[in-house]
Amino acid sequence: MTEPTGPLKGLRVVDLTRVLAGPTCTQMLGDMGAEVIKIERPDAGDDTRGFAPPYMPNTRESAYFVGVNRNKKSVTIDIAKPEGQAIVHKLLENADILVENFKTGALAKYGLSYEDLKNQYPGLIYCSITGFGQTGPYAPRPGYDALIQAMGGVMSLTGDPDGEPQKVGIPVADLFAGLYGTIGILAALRHKQATGQGQQIDIGMLDTHVAWLANQGMNYLATGENPPRLGNQHPNIVPYQVFPTADGYMVLSIGNDPTFERFCKNFALENLLADERYATNAARVGNRALVTETLTAVTKTKTTDEWISQLEALKIGCGPINTLDRVFSDPHVQARNMLVKMQHASGEEVTVVANPVKLSATPPDYRSAAPMLGQHTDEVLASIGFDAMAIAQLKDSKIV
Question: Annotated catalytic residue: which of 15, 78, 96, 174?
């Protein structure tokens, strides 16, 4: 692992997270230069090491794990044993941040809760990411992405109007919780810089899910009516949806009346502009089915590529519905360097999705691919004062 260069260089993170929400948060910190020490169970490790296939090519490392654990050092410690807890305390002596996503209250039985640590380490920033937060009637419950998507309302808004509710195709509840955790940590670091004081950050997946209901949440608060599922249509803008073409589908995004006028004038639909049912966005929302039916007959007359070419020339929002092979081969995605090749400890080169945050002075730092289980145990223990004999004894006792 090369020396970090990012804006968080010099910060140490004790990472007691696994699966996705927590690791998303700590990978972001690692990308920004923090030293992230990922504590894993001996012999088993993070659950996602077993979320396979698929594996990364020519390795036994799950693609899932490799995707959210770069720039971390893996140290195996059994925190259920007092000797393991003592090692965590040694790490905390020089740590700035602890991130954990155990069930609410679970770390208290190991003496590693925020209440256990806050007086001993008053400058520690302690970020807890759980399904339902540290308080409230659901606090003891485990949280899972699909469960949170269901309880948080997103599934009620997603899917075909005549079909069953659908979850989003990626685990957005986990990802948003991890990213909100990062935001909270950065705010807490600014507070610590000013005061020297640490604090606990309480991230509940359900809270973050409610927070990003965005316009749909506000639509409900404004009307008191549950928004219906609209499939691929927009609740407040028409046309802003998927349309069929001569050879597939595309997304057409007409966000305002001048753009709709430009669309009509360039595709022999000027007659629609004189019809009050089409004249304004509010009218089009009120006549959604009619507008969709009318434009579907038009969009089916050209191929997707023909539409994209002509609409882009007119600066009208549009796009193909890409499969992932087309996403990763897209010239813009490539120009933005959204894929990174990294050398893995197995000896293989792995390709991962890059950090999307573009910083002009301190860009994300790709120091090391996701670690093999326990890859850095000896190195990290030596750095906090354990000699070779002591490390060997810890291994013999199954502490590490």
Answer: 174
Residue 243 carries which DSSP code? E
> What's the pTM?
0.93
- 5-46 pLDDT, tens per residue? 889 999 999 999 999 999 999 999 999 999 999 999 999 999
For residue range 304-318, what is the model confidence (pLDDT) as tens digits? 999 999 999 999 999
Q: State the Cα–Cα distance between residues 120 and 115, nearest whole angstrom.
A: 10
Six token digits for residue 87: 């090692």
Q: Is 227 exposed, middle or buried (0-12, 13-18, 19+ CB in 10 A)?
A: middle
DSSP sequence for 14-49:
EEE--TTHHHHHHHHHHHTT-EEEEEE-TTT-SGGG
Q: Which option is the CATH number for 240-322: 3.30.1540.10, 1.50.10.10, 2.30.29.30, 3.40.50.150?
A: 3.30.1540.10
Residues 190 and 181: their CA atoms lie apart, in Å, by 14
- Give 109's DSSP letter: G
Correct CATH for 12-212+338-396 of 2.170.150.20, 3.40.50.300, 3.40.630.30, 3.40.50.10540:
3.40.50.10540
- Rounded Cα distance between 83 and 13, Å, is 20
Q: Is 3 exposed, middle or buried (0-12, 13-18, 19+ CB in 10 A)?
A: exposed
Q: Which tokens hold the place of 398? A: 């199954």
Told to judge if 174 belongs to the known catalytic residues of this protein, a careful annotator would answer: yes
| Owner of token pair 């770069």 | 70
Q: Residue type for 180, please? A: Y
Q: Are 29 and 185 in contact (CB under 8 A)?
A: yes
Q: What are the tens digits of pLDDT across the range 265-307?
A: 999 999 999 999 999 999 999 999 999 999 999 999 999 999 9
CA-based radius of gyration for the chain = 25
256-295 burial by CB neighbour count: b if 16+ within 10 A, else e? ebebbbbbbeebebeebeeeeebeebebbbebbeebbebb
**Cα angle for residues 356, 127, 117 (degrees, 5° grid):** 150
With beta carbons less than 8 A apart as the criterion, state whether 249 and 242 touch. yes
Spatial separation of the C-alpha atoms in residues 118 and 101, rounded to whole Å = 17
Burial of 366 per CB tally in 10 Å (0-12, 13-18, 19+): middle
* Local structure of 221: helix, strand or coil: helix
